[in-house]
Specification:
Layout lengths: L4 E7 L3 H12 L4 E4 L8 H4 L20 H6 L9 H14 L6 E2 L4 E7 L4 E6 L4 E9 L21 E4 L14 E5 L3 H13 L2 E6 L5 E3 L7 H9 L1 H9 L21 H12 L17 H18 L3 H7 L11 E3 L2 H4 L5 E5 L5 E5 L2 E4 L2 E4 L2 E4 L8 H4 L3 E2 L6 H4 L18 E3 L12 H22 L4 E3 L1 H16 L30 H11 L5 E3 L1
Parallel strand pairs: 1-2, 1-6, 2-3, 4-17, 6-18, 7-16, 8-9, 8-16, 9-12, 10-11
Antiparallel strand pairs: 4-5, 5-6, 13-14, 14-15, 19-20
Helix pairs in contact: 1-14, 9-10
Bound molecules: ligand NA7.
Ligand NA7 binds next to helix 5.
Length: 531
């Protein structure tokens, strides 16, 4: 049973909700956590598809608030697989005794502000209501699954799966005819493994994607020990990196445009074998300048052509546009998979999937039959989870209405008209463009200290100032416009969900974002109104 009243509610038991709850408990608040899933883990609880793995290295994609935890936990691989990260989240929850603060299998479907006493009342799908003074949404950036509204979706009689809501017991595709729709990160990670089991695999690709081999490997104990011996130093350096990770690696600041063809090739090769995102460190201007970017894109295409034996398939797999303005993928054997005789690529860029029917799907005048269809079609990213919750602020203003032309926030943490409501890694914060665990720890510290300050000052409510928010939205757009990021149809822009406003949502600017929040705190929260 949920209590009727508490000081603070935290929605979500991912890495954000976990650390937020811990911090609020340290303040002595009566805090309740609500989570729609059955346990801790968030993203890593839901995304159990085969091959699911983090694209940030294990030694960096981890909490740093406890030196003991940091030393104790052993990561077995350079990039952790989903079960390992899930086990880590659950371990942290138990080790720091957060589990008893959470109620699982509770989906928040409403949150309504009452201006008479500055409280929020949160309602769950299960029919409960809980009133609190402070409401913190730790609902994740990639937690609202997107299944396109294909005609005949419900007519299909075979089994369907979304990568972001994978069955807990796993799926055995042995001997089955399988379709994967989508070629984003989730597809790119799962396709090589599904192909090992399936009798046949058809991949339906609308847009080819850039992917760099992750170069995943076991993490040698000596390497982990050497990092742990100076963990604080690595963490500190990462706070000052553009995305809060990758301090081990040298980033070359030089322009690709002034390098000779030989220098260019040699350097791209060197960074290729570093794997994943590190490839973008080969030159300093790859995500800033379209001509520079074209060199990196062409290098990756040359690797795809070298790998995929059938020239027609290779050409279809070669992405055409800017590299890394959609999130760069990191794979293990993705392009090689298309050399298997039972794996076929179907281009749906010109002739979209027309409909699903009882036995499969139709596109380009062809009918394909399948035993199972995997939707690797991504998420209503960054705003989806927040907007699905029915949040109603001051004077009956709904978040949906307020954000009808795109999200507007102050620092990606609060939004005017919604007092005493905080978002962890919300739109307008670096969020998905930085190490997410560092991002949530940063926000948990900022939000908990702000609540502590509020109480010490004797205030009962705080909200973003409209002028500060307007200025922040302008700054965010200006930042993004200086880069290549807004130039392709990515989920950063909401372009993957039909009808969603096209607005660049994450704030490009770690680490100065951290400095900015530090200054705002030192100045007693400029840009906020209190009462
Ligand atoms: P993504 O990266 O959004 O990928 C979704 C894929 O699904 C992408 O290839 C889409 O093609 C495709 N898609 C979406 N709708 C359709 C329709 N209607 N027809 C055909 N294909 C479609 O999601 P992921 O889950 O792979 O990755 C999300 C993030 O998780 C990732 O960036 C990492 O940060 C981890 P499109 O490109 O839109 O043409």
């Amino acid at each position: 049973m949920l209590p009727k009243r508490c000081d603070a509610v935290v929605v979500g038991a991912g890495f954000g909700g976990l650390i937020m709850t811990l911090r609020l408990r340290e303040l002595g608040l009566d805090v309740v956590g609500l989570e729609r899933g059955g346990d801790f883990g968030g993203t890593w609880y839901w995304n159990r598809y085969p091959g699911c793995r983090c694209d940030v290295e294990s030694m960096e994609y981890s909490y740093q608030f406890s030196k003991e935890l940091e030393q104790e936990w052993q990561w077995p691989e350079r990039y952790s697989a989903q079960p390992e990260i899930l086990a880590y989240a659950q371990h942290v929850a138990d080790r720091f005794d957060v589990r008893r603060l959470f109620h699982f299998n509770r989906e928040v479907v409403s949150a309504v502000f009452d201006s008479t006493d500055s409280t929020w009342t949160v309602g769950t799908r299960e029919g409960e209501a809980l009133t609190c003074s402070y409401l913190i949404m730790a609902t994740g950036c990639l937690s609202a699954a997107n299944i396109p509204a294909f005609a005949g979706l419900n007519d299909y009689k075979g089994r369907t799966y979304h990568t972001g809501a994978w069955p807990h017991g796993g799926v055995d595709f042995t001997g089955q005819r399988v379709a994967v729709i989508g070629t984003g990160s989730s597809a790119i990670q799962s396709i090589p493994i599904i192909a090992r089991q399936a009798k046949s695999l058809h991949v339906f690709q609308r847009t080819a994607n850039y992917s760099i081999p992750a170069q995943n490997a076991p993490l040698p104990e000596e390497t982990a020990a050497a990092i742990k011996a100076n963990y604080g130093e690595l963490r500190e350096r990462n706070w000052n990196q553009p995305a809060a990770f990758g301090a081990y690696y040298e980033r070359n600041p030089d322009s690709v445009l002034t390098a000779t063809p030989e220098e260019r090739k040699a350097r791209f090769e060197r960074y290729w074998v570093m794997g994943g995102f590190m490839f973008l460190g080969a030159f300093g201007d790859l995500v800033m300048n379209v001509d520079a970017n074209a060199h990196a894109a062409e290098f990756v295409r040359s690797k795809i052509r070298e790998t995929v034996k059938d020239p027609g398939t290779a050409e279809l797999l070669c992405p055409k546009g800017i590299i890394a303005c959609k999130r760069l993928c990191a794979d293990t054997g993705y392009f090689e998979t298309y050399n298997l005789p039972h794996v076929k690529l179907v281009d749906v860029s010109q002739k979209p999937i027309e409909r699903l029917n009882p036995t499969g799907l139709e596109t380009g005048g062809n009918h394909y039959e399948f035993d199972a269809i995997v939707f690797a079609t991504g998420f209503d990213a960054m705003t989806g989870a927040l907007l699905r919750m029915g949040i109603v602020g001051e004077g009956g203003l709904t978040l949906k209405d307020k954000w009808s032309a795109g999200p507007r926030t102050w620092l990606g943490v609060t939004t005017s008209g919604f007092p005493n409501l905080w978002m962890m890694t919300g739109p307008g914060s670096p969020s998905v463009l930085a190490n997410m665990i560092t991002g949530v720890e940063h926000h948990a510290d900022f939000i908990s200290r702000q609540i502590e300050w509020l109480r010490k000052q004797g205030h009962t409510r705080i909200e973003a100032d409209v002028a500060a928010e307007d200025q922040w939205v302008d700054t965010l757009n200006q930042r993004a416009s200086l880069t290549l990021y807004p130039h392709c149809n990515s989920w950063y822009l909401g372009a993957n969900v039909p009808g969603k406003p096209r607005v660049f949502m994450p704030y490009l600017g770690w680490p100065d974002y951290v400095q900015r929040l530090r200054q705002i705190e030192a100045d007693d929260y400029t840009g906020f109104k209190v009462a």
